[in-house]
Amino acid sequence: MRGIIWKARLLRDSAPGCCCSATDENWSMLSDSSQPSLPKAVLIVEDNELNLKLLNDILEYHGYTVFTTRLGEPALEIARQHRPDLILMDIQLPDISGMEAARRLKEDDQTRTIPIIAVTAFAMSGDEAQILASGCDAYVSKPFNLVEFLKLVERWTTNLT
Ligand code: MN
After folding, report:
1. How far is the CA of 18 from the centre of ligand 1 (A)?
2. The domain at 38-157 falls in which architecture?
3. Region label for 119, one of left (φ > 0), alpha (ψ between -120 and 50) or beta (otherwise)
4. Rounded mean pLDDT of 15-31?
5. CA–CA gap between residue 137 and residue 119 (Å, rounded)
6. 44 Cα–ligand 1 center, Å
7. Of 22, 34, 54, 123, which one has the fewest beta carbons inside 10 Å?
């Protein structure tokens, strides 16, 4: 449904002389280069104050609505309540681990469809497979490349179905 509204806006906003037309063939390309009509919401789960602020500021600057928590348990409740488009999940948290939080989010019918990107300093081999097995959909190692990070966030928050 949201995709249909968005498409209507894109067609309306197309300037005369624009080289693109919103055909089905190039629809996905158009969506990548256009501002969404509704801000996408991202829940950041991160206990490190500086990392939390950094991620929050980057995403807010780029037009995302941001929810934050420093703990895993409250993340489950925020996810149920606000249904963010994406969750950025630190793995090492003070209460439950990010992997445990991901497992619980994917077990809950209300939150299982929300994509989760693990954001972690873990760099040892094997961790990535373990993190993905816990229910996370993608994985980013800190420190990360800002442009690549934003591309990843955009990709996972752009749901055209
Ligand atoms: Mn942490």
Report:
1. 46
2. 3-Layer(aba) Sandwich (3.40)
3. beta
4. 39
5. 11
6. 11
7. 123
